[in-house]
């Protein structure tokens, strides 16, 4: 995937990205503003060794001893011998274990300093606990742990060099940090979901998806018509509607492809049933006739014919009957409406559709109608299930394959194109159908004449 492909993935999944971002940002905000602020105060101690000899060697030994002792003294800071005294002096009701969770000790590397830190929802109480713990720790070490006797002082001396200041800002929760993490995490989650959806998505949703599967051009982009079931012939019932404009754009694109007159006969098919190929064929025939062209629409789907039902005409006799010689063209081809739209319904469903469509009678029929009409459009069955579209594409200029956005599977489209190519059929291009509407009166990707 190139950068443009990633951008298209993010654009298609913008709602998921926004929702995940807002959810994590809201969660971070809710967690942050429901936490009790905690303040931290720090008291600093200095550890030294008393020595009667001020020689360099004695001072060096004393400093080394003090650095070694600091590590042990830090471990004592939250011990029972210290915290029980702190609880008693400050009249704290919490247990020693709970108090130990709020007290910590550390030492800058290579120094004889000890930092005693205490946290509390009350900033003044945090400073008081820190100072008291430091004083008790110093007393315990010098009087009990390092004291030689009551008459002689302890070898170690511990002094408070920096009493705790009352903190003016809490250390937790960190409001802006949490909100930024929620925002970034939400965006990352949304983008990850979008990319995984794209990897796992097997359906063709946009014209860009088509270009990743085939080099064939997308020559038509038809918007989704929510009333297609009740009003399929929108190019006739409402020719000025934005829903009709993409059919005229398709007509224009086909005309550019037909500059030498060789492409005035096309087959319209799809990968699977239900992609809207018959509706597109019907509306294309109408807009072709609107432009003054004598247009014939043949229902070449001899398995599940649909043209007669779309136009509301009698379809009991038609193409299948014509091919076996039981009727003539004049008896079965019907003019429809005030325009030059002519319809050849499928007729009775035969037991051998493929054989009829590849027969000499079919070739002769097409030769005659190609000469009699400006445009001939054949509505063929889905290419994935039968070979009829491939057969018909060889008898015409080629096939237009309809792809239903969000419905046609990528694998089905690839297999359908391959099935046509395997018997030397020809595909002219792709028509994207049912593209979701964006904005007012326009459709994604639609073009005007």
In brief:
The protein is α/β, with parallel strands linked by helices and about 450 residues long. It is about 45% helix and about 15% strand.
Plain-language structure description:
By secondary structure, the chain is an alpha/beta fold. The chain folds into 3 domains: 3-35 and 173-199, no CATH class; 39-162, Alpha-Beta Plaits (2-Layer Sandwich); 205-435, 3-Layer(aba) Sandwich (Rossmann fold). 46% of the residues lie in helices and 16% in strands. It contains 18 helices and 12 strands. The strands form 2 sheets. The chain has an 8-stranded mixed beta sheet with strand order 5-12-11-6-10-7-9-8. Keywords: ATP-binding, Cell inner membrane, Cell membrane, Kinase, Membrane, Nucleotide-binding, Transferase, Transmembrane, Transmembrane helix, Tyrosine-protein kinase.
Secondary-structure-derived class: alpha/beta
CATH topology of the largest domain: Rossmann fold
Please tally the β strands and state the result.
12
Mean model confidence by pLDDT: 88
Family: Belongs to the CpsC/CapA family.
Domain Polysaccharide chain length determinant N-terminal: 3-90
Keywords: ATP-binding, Cell inner membrane, Cell membrane, Kinase, Membrane, Nucleotide-binding, Transferase, Transmembrane, Transmembrane helix, Tyrosine-protein kinase
Protein name: non-specific protein-tyrosine kinase
Write the layout of secondary structure elements.
Elements: H1 3-12, H2 14-33, E1 39-49, H3 56-76, H4 80-90, H5 96-100, E2 103-106, E3 113-120, H6 123-145, E4 156-162, H7 175-200, H8 207-211, E5 218-223, H9 234-237, H10 245-257, E6 265-270, H11 277-290, E7 295-299, H12 307-311, H13 319-323, H14 329-332, E8 334-336, E9 341-344, H15 353-357, H16 360-372, E10 375-379, H17 388-395, E11 399-404, H18 410-422, E12 427-435
Helix pairs in contact: 1-7, 2-7, 4-6, 10-11
